[in-house]
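Possible regression after last week's pipeline update?

I re-ran a chain I had predicted before the update to compare outputs. Posting the input and the new output here so someone can diff against the archived version. Not blocking, just want to make sure nothing changed silently.
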Amino acid sequence: MTIEELISEGETLVRPSFLLNAQETDSGKVGYWGGERADMPDELPPQVTAFSGRRHIFSVSEALVSKLGINQGPFSLFEWENNNGDLSHRVKADSHTHFKDLNFSGEPLYAKLTDSFPPFPAVCLYGSDRVAAWLRELGLARHDYWRVPGELPAQYESAWQKRSPFFQQSADIVVGGWHFLWPDDDFFIPAELRLAALTLRDAEPWLEVWHSACSQGWRVKERIT
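New output (post-update):
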């Protein structure tokens, strides 16, 4: 397997993703950064006693995330603070809610469609039979991506970084696309979990919002280096 062949394998696995920022595009407003969501203001009602406040981080329209196969309405990410000062993150999503009916005081975001190029572990796990045969020749299984010898992994990593919005810092939020291994990950998160959004603005920490195709649930991961 040459680096050119490996990159070609990666090209067959590209996924659609959207780069969101304040620069206007034909997409129209598809999200908001910061500010408040009017129906979920930062100030909590008196009957909420376990938390002292919350902060709207961003929201994304259902029209955008439905293109990723996630059909749960628009979703918003909030930071909650309990009475001890501890912070946590929660996702609010409702299939009966429509983005156009919500009011925000934050900065409007617009989308640009782009291809998301897979990282090296994804090619090993989800590449063609040719990739599996190459790994077998090395005495490895698909999940042994971390044991591949030689310079190919680093060469592919370099090619991936040149295409990754994470390294290009070309957006406030990346919606959809491939995820990648962080230093604190023990393994490449399987395809049953779909990366819905990754924040690049105001990092670090970076915030990943994940959606499970199996449970239809949401998870949030806070990432630091």
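Follow-up from reviewer: compared with the archived run. The radius of gyration is 19 Å. Marking as no regression found.
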